[in-house]
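Question: what's this shape?

___
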Amino acid sequence: MSLNTLKINHFGIVIPVNKTESIENEFGEKFIRDDIQGVSVCFVWDKRLNHYCEFITQEGRAKNYELGFNHICYDVEDQDAMTVLHKEIIQQKQGMRLTLPEMSPTENCNFVSFYMLNNVGIVEFNILNK
C-alpha cells in the first residue's frame, strides 16, 4: 500500500499554547482537550489546501516538537488494512510505529496511530472502522 493511494485527512500544525484564543477568534472553532496526548487541538477547514488543518498546542507529547508543520494524517479503511500497512512498513524498514491505535476525542478522526517514516517524518493514520 502506498501513501499516494490513501486519502489525506488533515495536516497537523504545532502552535504555542498562548495562541489558542486568537485561533479560536479568527476561525470560529474551539479547541478541545486530547487527554491521551496531553494537548489541545482545533480542526479548521482550509479552502486553499482543500483539507483540514489540525492546530496542536505545544505541550504534553508535543512539548518538544518544533512550531509549524508536524505531520500529515491519512485515512485507512479499517483495522485489517492498517495491519497490512503496518507489516509493510516494518518489513520494508520504512520506519517505526510511535503509538498504538488510540481513540481520538475529535469528530475528525476515529482511532489513530502515529508512525515515524523514513524520508517523510511523522505520519498519523486514522483508522475509519475499527
Q: What stands out?
A: Helices lie at 20-27, 79-91. The CA atoms of residues 2 and 25 lie 38 Å apart.
